[in-house]
Amino acid sequence: MVMAQSLFIHLKKQNPNIKIDVLAPEWSVALIARMPQVSTAISLAVKHGVLDLKIRYKTAVRLRQNNYQQAIITPRSIKAALLPFFAKIPQRTGYRGEHRYGLLNDIRPLNKKLLTQTVQRYVFLGNTDAENNTIPVIDYPKLEVKASKIKDLLHHLKLNLNKPIIALLPGAEYGPAKQWPVEYFKELATKVTALGFQVWVMGSEKDKTTASQIIDSTSDTHFNLCGKTALVDVVDLLSLVQYAVSNDSGLMHVACATNVTVIALYGSSSPSYTPPLHQDAIVMYKNLECSPCFKRQCQFKHLNCLKHITVAEVLEKIKQSY
User: How far apart are alpha carbons 254 and 141 in whole angstroms?
Assistant: First the structure.
């Protein structure tokens, strides 16, 4: 979702008066509200991968009164194209995807050799000239930080700013093949503490157990924040940290959009396809023969693509840039 902000920026640059509403999953609505280019974030109460035609149709009928001129559909599934069609939006732009003829009437060519990055493919759909086949200029996402909320957040979570902060983001929703080993995160937490940093481990409720294995529960500078914050709270908290060490995950893109220096760890995925969108981001990627495989589990059972990224290498990157 964060990468889509580059599309919104592109649309506003072409037409500053354009009104952009975004239809998105419930979990992302508060995050979209931190994107100044968006007028309204509309929640679609359908779980990922679920068709639920009834809800899609009801939502579409409700949206007809907004008289939208165009819908840009970034996903390539048939499901994603149904609602704009039901809403009778006159121009429905997207890639052909799953044979969506009829559902879309402004089908753009997807040149994967030209548009190698996901964010480029999003922004390309925003070109007003459908014949424009040049690689679009990418403006990096930048989420708004609510400074007024930070004091209450720090108080509620019993955090302080007495020492510089390194955030560790150990989760990856896609699967273990994108996760740097927990023991590596734990060793890194110990070593950056010795350098004078405090450690905030961030993630969802699902990451809570992993985080408990990373932090030293006896340390007054290690904090397990997983499951204790809303996603928008993480935006505000990340704006306070000096570094974020992250797997290739949604939170990695959130961190980049809060202007923190991100050290991004890539294994089964490719930094050429979903790079960290920040000018100061540091990419750690071994480019092994078996990588990227884009699989959820390591098919060879060794996870060398991530295990070969050592704690010492990550620590050296921090020392060099601090």
Answer: 9
